Amino acid sequence: MGDQLEPDFIQALEHRPKSGITEAKGIPLIDLSPSINSSKSDDLANLVAEIGDACENWGFFQVINHGVPLEVRERIELASREFFALSKEEKKKVSRNEVNLFGYSDFEITKSVRDWKEVFDCTIENPTVIYASDEPDDEELKELYNQWPEYPPDLRNAKTDIQITGTHSLELRITERSVTWLFKNQTSFMRLNYYPPCPAPQLALGLGRHKDAGAMTILAQDDVGGLEVKRKSDGEWIFVKPTPDAYIVNVGDLIQVWSNDKYESVEHRVTVNSQKERFSIPFFINPSHSIWVEPLEELINDQNPGKYKGYSWGKFYATRKLSNFKKLTSENIQHFVLVHGSGHGAWCWYKLVPMLRSSGHNVTALDLAASGIPTISDYFKPLMDFMDSVPKRERVILVAHSSGGLAVSRAMEKFPEKIYAGVFITALMPGVSLNISTLSREALQINYST
Ligand SMILES: O=C(O)CCC(=O)C(=O)O
């Protein structure tokens, strides 16, 4: 990360931060003191209801009077600043790698775009036990250990501090039954985030839009600000103003599944700025690798049938953690490049584009016919230009329809290092009520840019 913004950090137009973003005045601020000081069941019931409302309506809230000593937070924050101020060479001595999945990284990718940040991850249970592979029937386990830099020594002591924080976090009861058993042999971990000043903050993100895959996240942010949450009510990105000594809590995907969608995991992202560095510390609360995740039995009935198939948290977690080192894109999010046949326009992808996008993939549909097709190389040109613009280290999946296959074959010869796979299809099946003119009309309403 230097003074120039490399192309792999540049977000697609629709994901770039907007100026004049709304401030999230409405994010609930919850006083947790009744959970610490009060033994009155009414006080606790009110608090539980307040947290329930916040989870249901926002998926995000801030807590104050949480009982986590301020010195604990200040100690970790100081250690984090000291660590990230070290030289790259020093920090890379504790890099994450295939053996040590915890440690330092300056190469985080979210939805195929690089994040403008550095991180240091450490686990709570040391060792943390996870599945050794993502193969469903492979029961082999492996142990993950923390690695610590020599300096600052306080980072190592953060482990004890984290445990204190963790104990407090787990005391946040959001259902009427205790959930602590889920977190025996937890796979929770803490991340130190460092967002350096960025030369082009209007083009990049410190952390791309994402939802947290675990149960719940508790986040300490400094006073610089940059966290944005996608408001559930209208899909607007809103700024979460830092509140001194507050923690931000957000619902993760596991709570969404356990609650059968009553509490939804909400998208969030981090913007950066050109002047100030920013630090934050998320604590990701995750269950044991052995936990099978499905909607809680007591919430399911004929009126409210289960909306999710069960899945193994351990297998999901192993896929996530191990995939960091198998490929450079994360979360199995791909960039599909659709190349139509000569007689068609980009409209012929009208069904595939929304389908791929709704699964979170990036899609570019190229219009080859736009080049007028006087020669074969004119016909190929939009794809060749596009492949030239694909950043180093990024790879795309090319999908060709009919004679678009000629262009895709050419690109596969010329840019093999930028292509994961080429898919060749010969026919499309529009719905029965659609003909060429309705297809064209629909296509005009879709924005096909990346
Ligand atoms: O830095 C922040 O405010 C948010 C961090 C976050 O969402 C994450 O690390 O997953």
TrEMBL record:
Gene3D superfamilies listed in its UniProt record: alpha/beta hydrolase, B-lactam Antibiotic, Isopenicillin N Synthase, Chain
Span of domain Fe2OG dioxygenase: 186-287
Keywords: Iron, Metal-binding, Oxidoreductase
Claim: Metal-binding is one of the keywords in the record: yes
Family (UniProt): Belongs to the iron/ascorbate-dependent oxidoreductase family.
Protein name per Swiss-Prot or TrEMBL: Fe2OG dioxygenase domain-containing protein
